[in-house]
Design brief:
The protein is of the alpha+beta class and 423 residues long. The protein has 2 domains: 187 residues, Ribosomal Protein L25, Chain P (Beta Barrel), CATH 2.40.240; 191 residues, RlpA-like domain (Barwin-like endoglucanases, Beta Barrel), CATH 2.40.40. 23% of the residues lie in helices and 27% in strands. The strands form 4 sheets. The protein has a 6-stranded mixed barrel, surrounded by 4 helices. A 3-stranded antiparallel sheet has the order 7-8-9, with no helix packed on it. A two-stranded antiparallel ribbon has the order 2-3. Strand 15 and strand 16 form a beta hairpin. The longest helix is centred in the first third of the chain and has 17 residues. It is globular and about 65 Å long. It starts with 44 loop residues before the first helix and ends with a strand.
């Protein structure tokens, strides 16, 4: 499970228009001119709405319907990636379904399917891809042998919104010093993962002094020292924005000044809803549309204001240390496959499904340039995220490295998703 890269959700790709005088982005490019930083965000009318809302508007699809469509709607499956990665992803999905009891069921639209049907679906897809069929032959087999469901956002477009995430890398120190003052926290011992039978509307909490189950401390209280003295500090960062970056991506690499590193993975959250600080600053006119990578760079340049801005989002994620040779893991307990694993809202789009997506994706070029091209690809739902809500939101895992960071940070496009269930 991860805290996803959805600050991008409400923003289109950066425009290619000539920039005005402005700040320098993380890759040395000048970003379109910014108005002077607001002394206080309280002067912005949107700030009151941001503070009062449980989750800041514009982050999720309100649609609650996934419907079956004619198999004729399925596009030609001209997958843009290699077959081996697809087969690896499908086999991991099959291992997930083999661990589920036969009585385990999922709901897709109005229909319910048990684990045996999902195992059969996944195995039949493996058999088809191993057979080396042509695109036309595969298209016919899918239309003949599978039911097709389509999921869309609620904006009237009939499309989904596809964004990207990746395994982040940040710089940090093993011990605090004059510059590295902000800790990345391990999971506290009193954190409770809630279940539906507990009758609460949050995913993690704690027992308060009155014996009541409540949300865990919000980010601002954690930043203020709510966990101090418990030896929960994993590493120390110079910038709260970099900690937020790690939390949003959900897994990452922490690099130390001596070249050594550790890997981190999601290990719980604080039960508070996600609020997009990037959207607030955009709505208040402080920043233009920008990639997530450039937004983190912007926050890191805010001096003493950086912490206050980051703390406006009450959601907080805890980490555990992973083996250095381990891949990033998703909510189904298997490795995430770059380009194949997606994060979904498991209500309308259950974990373990296989789907065909069609959209546009950024392609990094030399000197930080980006081009966008159409693509079609088979993907599997391996992960979730606290801000991925509704059937119209999909987050595609990009992997690790500089190219993954650049492309995933710029990924936001409308598209289509078709879920496949064996007849």
């Amino acid at each position: 499970m991860r805290f996803l890269s959805i600050f991008l959700l409400s923003f289109p790709f950066m425009a290619a228009a000539a920039p005005e005088a402005g700040f320098m982005s993380s890759d040395g490019m000048e970003v379109a001119g910014l108005p002077p930083a607001l002394d206080t965000l309280e002067t912005c009318p949107k700030f009151g709405e941001f503070s009062a809302a449980r989750a800041y508007p514009g982050l999720s699809s309100g649609l609650r319907e996934v419907s079956e469509v004619s198999a004729e709607a399925l596009p030609l499956p001209e997958d843009d990636m290699g077959k081996e990665g697809l087969l690896e992803s499908l086999r991991l999905t099959l291992s997930y379904w083999k661990k589920r009891p036969d009585a385990f069921r999922i709901k897709i639209g109005p229909d319910s399917y048990g684990a045996p049907r999902m195992r059969d679906t996944t195995q039949r897809l493996i058999n088809l891809f191993e057979a080396g069929l042509s695109g036309q032959e595969l298209h016919k087999a899918l239309k003949d042998d599978f039911r097709v469901y389509r999921s869309v956002a609620d904006d009237g477009s009939g499309k989904i919104v596809l964004t990207g995430y990746y395994e982040a890398e940040i710089k940090a120190a093993k011990k605090p010093d004059e510059t590295h003052k902000f800790p990345v926290h391990l999971k506290p011992p009193d954190l409770i993962k809630t279940t539906p039978d507990m009758g609460v509307d949050f995913d993690y909490g704690r027992i308060d002094q009155n014996g009541k189950l409540v949300r865990y401390y919000p980010r601002q209280e954690i930043s203020g020292g709510a966990l101090a003295g418990q030896d929960l500090e994993l590493v120390w960062s110079e910038h709260p924005a970099l900690i937020m970056l790690l939390q949003i991506q959900g897994s990452g690499i922490v690099r130390f000044p001596d070249g050594d590193f550790i890997k981190t993975g999601f290990d719980g959250a604080n039960g508070w809803p996600f609020k997009s600080v990037q959207k607030l600053l955009k709505d208040c006119g402080e920043i233009p549309d920008m990639s997530f990578k450039d937004f983190i760079s912007y926050l890191a340049k805010q001096g003493g204001r950086e912490s206050r801005l980051v703390d406006l989002n009450p959601r907080y994620v805890f980490f555990k240390q992973r083996p250095k040779d381990s891949p990033a893991y998703g909510a189904i307990g298997t490795a995430l496959i770059p380009g194949r694993s997606i994060a979904v809202d498991p209500g309308p789009l259950p974990l373990g499904i296989t789907a065909l997506i069609r959209s546009k994706r950024p392609v990094a070029g030399q000197n930080g340039s980006l081009a966008f091209k159409d693509f079609t690809r088979f993907v599997q739902a391996h992960d979730t995220g606290s801000a991925i809500r509704g059937p119209g939101r999909i987050d595609l895992f990009w992997g690790a490295g500089e190219t993954a960071e650049t492309e995933a940070s710029a990924m936001k496009a409308k598209g289509d998703i078709f879920i496949l269930i064996a007849k």
